[in-house]
Structure formats: C-alpha cells, structure tokens
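Figure 6 in text form: structure in, sequence out.
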C-alpha cells in the first residue's frame, strides 16, 4: 500500500496549505534541485496560457500550470517521484517538494472535480510482487494514458487502470500526444486480474506486455492528509 508515500490530499485544508506554500515553503521554488525546473516551467506555463483556451481549465492558476510543466518535463521527474514514494518521514521537514506536491495535487483535483472515471493504460519496466484482489497504491504521481502503444515506457509490467481521481492533462503536458491522465498518490486500486496468457493479451491488443495488471479504483487513502496544519 506504499505506506511511506507522501500522500497528502489536502482535503479540508487546501486554502491554508496554499498560504503555507506561498509563505513557509516558497523558498523551495528558488533554491535547491527544484530551482531550475521551476524557472523553466514558468516559461512553459506562459506559453500554455497564450496557446490554450483556459476556460476549458477553469480554476487552474499559473502556479498549477507551472507544476504540470515541471512534472511532465524530464528535469526532476525521477527525483520527485522517488521522494514522493519514500518521503513520509521527511514530509514537513527535509522533504524538498512541498510546493510542487501541493500545486500538482491541486491541479489534478481541479481537472477532475466531478470524479469522472478514466479508463487508461500504463507501461513500465519495473517488476511488481502483487496478487489478485490485493489493494494497492502507486505511492507517487503515476502517469497513465489513453494510448496503449507508448512502448518506450516499458513492456515488463502493463496496467489497465480505472482511475476516478486522475486528471486528464490534455494539452497542458510538456510532451504532446501522450493523452496523459495523472493519478495522485492517494488513490487506491483493487487488482481485479493479473494476465500473463499471451493469447488473452493479444486479444486485448497488448501482446507486447509481459504481464498485464487490471486495476479498478477503490477510493482514497491519505495518511498525511493536512499533516502540516497539525504541526
């Protein structure tokens, strides 16, 4: 269940956390590993504001767009997701990405404010030790797509995902054409089926995968919800 995840979903404290991010944690955006990524993401956000009809994305601010740009670029993607997956004990202290985590979580929630359930696909070269009917979380932000053929992301483990908390990034991503739906760390899933039979995978159009996990949304689990408001 990814118990070491930074899984704050800010339910009940979104406004107060925004104040904290713009105050206590604002320096994260201007120093350390996040500095250059945030600076580059500002230019990306400005371009998105010029190019897109933001009425389609009502509620998103420039900071939300910057967070999406920073995440979907390659500069800090790996470091950020590793810290999110393992940073529970450092959240509120030495965790380096409070601001990015907040704005990205908030953006995903705004993009799916009606809890629409997306049916998406994910590829990776990681191997997982899980069983059918087990409840799991990705534990970090997880990129999924409407496109099943993004082979560059991997073939060892594939996921057919029903996500009801994920947000469709559409044209807001740095990378065009990926049809990305971003899943937050706190969403839980039931593993409905694990498929290794090649004939069955071929019938589903995913014969390139070594194993296919079929996941169904099972609600939320946020161990750190509003933690920073309680310390």
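Output sequence:
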């Amino acid at each position: 269940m990814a118990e070491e995840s930074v899984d704050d979903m800010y339910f009940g404290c979104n406004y107060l956390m925004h104040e904290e991010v713009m105050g206590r944690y604002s320096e994260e955006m201007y120093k350390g590993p996040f500095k250059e990524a945030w600076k580059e993401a500002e230019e990306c956000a400005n371009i998105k504001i010029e190019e897109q009809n933001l009425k389609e994305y009502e509620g998103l601010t420039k900071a939300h767009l910057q967070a999406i740009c920073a995440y979907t670029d390659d500069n800090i993607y790996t470091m950020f997701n590793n810290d999110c997956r393992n940073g529970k004990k450092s959240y509120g202290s030495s965790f380096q990405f409070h601001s990015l985590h907040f704005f990205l979580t908030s953006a995903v929630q705004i993009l799916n404010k009606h809890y629409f359930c997306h049916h998406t696909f994910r590829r990776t070269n990681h191997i997982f030790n899980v069983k059918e009917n087990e409840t799991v979380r990705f534990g970090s932000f997880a990129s999924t797509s409407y496109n099943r053929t993004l082979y560059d992301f991997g073939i060892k483990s594939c996921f057919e995902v029903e996500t009801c908390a994920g947000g469709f990034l559409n044209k807001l991503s740095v990378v065009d054409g990926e049809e990305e739906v971003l899943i937050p760390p706190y969403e839980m899933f039931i593993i409905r089926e694990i498929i290794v039979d090649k004939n069955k995978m071929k019938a589903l159009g995913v014969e390139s995968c070594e194993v296919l996990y079929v996941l169904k949304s099972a609600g939320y689990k946020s161990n750190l919800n509003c933690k920073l408001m309680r310390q």
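Caption detail: The mean pLDDT is 94.
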